[in-house]
Amino acid sequence: MTPEVAPSQPYYRRDLALAHHLGYGFHADACAPGILRLLEPIRPRRGLVLELGCGSGALTRHLVDAGHRVVATDASPAMLELARPAVPDAEEIRLLTLPDDPLPECDAVVSVGHVLSYLPDEASLEAALAATAKALRPGGVFALDLLDRRYGDDVPPDETRGRVGDDWAVIARLSRPAENRFVREITTFIRTEDGSWRRDDERHENVLADTSRVLPLLALHGLDARVSNSFGDEDLPRGLVAIVGRTLAA
Ligand SMILES: C[S@@+](CC[C@H](N)C(=O)[O-])C[C@H]1O[C@@H](n2cnc3c(N)ncnc32)[C@H](O)[C@@H]1O
User: What is the residue with the minimal CA distance to atom 10 of ligand 1?
Assistant: First the structure.
């Protein structure tokens, strides 16, 4: 059985972070219009948006371009190194590892790319959700996506998927070893300056949330939230759900 322990290094080391930056911005691009609509109430008052798991800044760019003040955070130093030059006009881009690092008080929390699903187990996922809800000021907006128990239902055993660019390739072997766990064994190839290819391997373990527990937990912390199939008009894959809500105004 796979032990439920955090990996010794953060996910997304240098090569996978770069491949993600070059080839995987499409999810943030698709979610951005819906998230920007949800954030409209806080824009006139220049509310602070806290982004969790910003990666290399794919969503951050949309938020900042729309005039939001954004503190963008991630647990991967390699991702943050890419995000800083990509979104130099963010309020701050900083290392923040869920669920234990303190969160700044804010007027909105946003996150795309199932960031909280990277936590090692459901207890950590629920701790991160609670910390997030507590960080929100009255009238705050909450919008993040999560993997639920349906994710991977339609993936055949030992399925392998890949994407390739001119100077990078990513191949992922997928498996669903338990009802609440999805695993990607990811191999990355990056073309180096001398034309040779460098390989790296990462194992990504995702916890699949029982969403029937999520809304009552958020309600305990003053958040009126719902589980939705999208943030706006985009189509999310089966089992990737948007949790969208507001804190009660003071
Ligand atoms: C699939 S990527 C999504 C990145 C970005 N939001 C996007 O859409 O391009 C997941 C991100 O979650 C971050 N992450 C994983 N575990 C985390 C944790 N415990 N705390 C904060 N960020 C974490 C990873 O470093 C990675 O950048």
Answer: 115
**β-pairing verdict for 136-147 and 197-207:** unpaired
What are the φ and ψ backbone dihedral angles of 131, each rounded to 5 degrees?
A: -60, -40
Q: Given ligand 1 and candidates 12, 54, 115, 147, which is best to mutate, with the most ligand atoms within 8 Å of its CB?
A: 115
183 with 102, same domain? no
Are 132 and 239 found together in one domain?
yes
Ligand 1 site residues, Cβ closer than 6 angstroms: 10-12, 27-28, 53-55, 58-59, 74-76, 79, 97-98, 112-113, 115, 118-119
Distances (CA, A) of 21 to 78, 161, 168, 184: 11, 18, 11, 18
> Ligand 1 centre from 172 Cα, in Å?
17
Q: Which amino acid is present at 140?
A: G
226 in the same domain as 122: yes
Q: Are residues 100 and 216 in the same domain?
A: yes
pTM tops 0.90? yes
- Bridge partners of residue 174, in order along the sequence: 184
CATH number at residue 198: 2.20.25.110
Q: Which stretches of the chain drop beneath a pLDDT of 50? A: 1-6
**By residue range, what is the domain housing residue 63?**
14-150+208-247
For residue 119, the ligand 1 atom closest to its alpha carbon is: 19
The Cα 15–Cα 199 span in angstroms is 8
Tens of pLDDT, residues 179-221: 999 999 999 999 999 999 999 999 999 999 999 999 999 999 9
